[in-house]
Amino acid sequence: MPQLNPNPWFLIMLTSWLTFSLIIQPKLLPFTPTNSPSSSPTMTTKTTPWTWPWT
């Protein structure tokens, strides 16, 4: 059963994980989100219950 042989796939997984962790991730972390959360207070609105005609 050659699909269970981890020999070639472990090195590929390890290489891709290290590439992401050491090269790509530090380049992505400095970016700031475009929609930063605002600290404005949330306003509550008064809601009225719906009256169902069949009850």
From TrEMBL:
The keyword Mitochondrion applies. It is a single-pass membrane protein. Keywords: ATP synthesis, CF(0), Hydrogen ion transport, Ion transport, Membrane, Mitochondrion, Transmembrane, Transmembrane helix, Transport. One of its GO terms (molecular function) is proton transmembrane transporter activity. One of its GO terms (biological process) is proton motive force-driven ATP synthesis. It is found in: Mitochondrion membrane. The chain crosses the membrane at residues 6-24. One of its GO terms (cellular component) is mitochondrial membrane. InterPro entries: ATP8_metazoa (IPR001421), ATPase_protein_8 (IPR050635). It holds the Pfam family ATP-synt_8. Residues 34-55 are annotated as: Disordered. Belongs to the ATPase protein 8 family. This is ATP synthase complex subunit 8. The lineage of its organism: Eukaryota, Metazoa, Chordata, Craniata, Vertebrata.
